[in-house]
Predict the 3D structure of the following.
Amino acid sequence: HVDKDGLKDFFSCFGPVTDAIVMMDMVQQRSRGFGFITFENLSGGAQKAIESQPINMFGKMVEVKLATPKGGRDGGGGHAGAPQNFHRKPVMATTSTGEFAGLASSYG
C-alpha cells in the first residue's frame, strides 16, 4: 500500500509536488485506493503525468485525471485519453492555484 510520502515521491518525477493525500476508509483504517497530488503552480506536472499514461505504479496500472472541484463538475468525467483496455485503479493530482491537476489514480 502507498502512503502519503510514497505517493509524493512517485509523482515527483513529473514535476514539483507540494502536497499529497491518500484517501482513507475511516472504519477499516485502510486506503480507499486513490489519492490526490498537488503540483507546484505552473510546473506542468499534472499534464506530464496525464501524457505519460498508462502509468505502472508499483506493479499496478493507475489512471491519472485532473481533479475537479465538487461544485465545478461539468458532467464529463474525461479519462484524458487513457486506453480503456487495462485494469485501472484511480490517483488524483491537484495544484493549489491553477494546476488543480487531479491525478485520479487508484492504487493499493
Observations:
- The two ends are 5 Å apart (CA to CA).
- The first strand starts at residue 17 and ends at 25.
- DSSP finds two helices and five strands in the chain.
